[in-house]
Amino acid sequence: MRSRIYLFFIICLAVGDAFSQVKTPSSGSPNALPAAANPYSDADRNFTFGEKADRDLLSLATIERALSADSGNYQWLWRAARCYYYVGDNAGANDKLKYFEKGIDVGQRAIGLQPNAVEGHFWLAANFGGYSEEKGAFKALQMVKKIRAEMEIVLRLNDRYHNGGAYLALGEMDRQLPRIIGGNLSRAISRLEQGIGVAPNNLEMKLALGQAYQEAGRKDEARRQYQEITGRQVNPAFARAERDIQDKARRFLGRL
What is the pTM of this model? Predict the structure, then answer.
């Protein structure tokens, strides 16, 4: 994913490597069903969290067909929001915005149906981030409160969802944003340390925490995070994302 300033960058971090430790696509859902009885199995099986764009499009087609027949189904709605986010991220420049707008729409419908379920809030925030990037930095800054609010709800509902992705999003907002609009390095470190506590194998979380330590002058602690990342065996299912994180960690190590 692209590494730009402010919200899109921050939200990409939250939903990037977080997926690589998730055992099942619906890991945060209280309504998960056995595979034999699961009507969502085809969509889930094809979905790759952005690793393979063609398969994500197949998953999206399945979801859209299901929603055309059952538009009020929460499970299809949050899956649609998730899929629109990743398909939008991989889409051409002229198509990105439409996917993120659709993701926002289905995300809002999802939380309207089940405000106390975690998935809708998380993927709505992700699509807010993608939409903001396409609209520019000014729009991104306008979205800070909305994204914070959704991710705070995620923490209250299930802070382990998506491998602690809400801790990563909030921690990176605090680390990346200027203090005048809510940035706070000490709070960022606290958030990211909490995130590591619930998701110790989240490489993106470790990378962000290493950067926060480095910016705070805590070089030994930063080095430890980077070394843990570079020493990690890559998961073949998410090789592209994990190798990218390892490359970044090596670069940061070289600057210490």
Answer: 0.85
CA 76, CA 61: separation in Å to the nearest integer? 12
Q: Which residue has the tokens 């925490």?
A: 209
Buried b (16+ CB within 10 A) or exposed e, 148-187: bebbebbbebbbbbbbbbbbbbbbbbbbbbeeeeeeeeeb
Identify the pLDDT of residue 244.
Answer: 94
Second CATH level (architecture) for the domain 6-28+41-255? Alpha Horseshoe (1.25)
Domain residue ranges of the chain, discontinuous segments joined by +:
6-28+41-255
Exposed / middle / buried, residue 104 (Cβ in 10 Å: 0-12, 13-18, 19+): buried
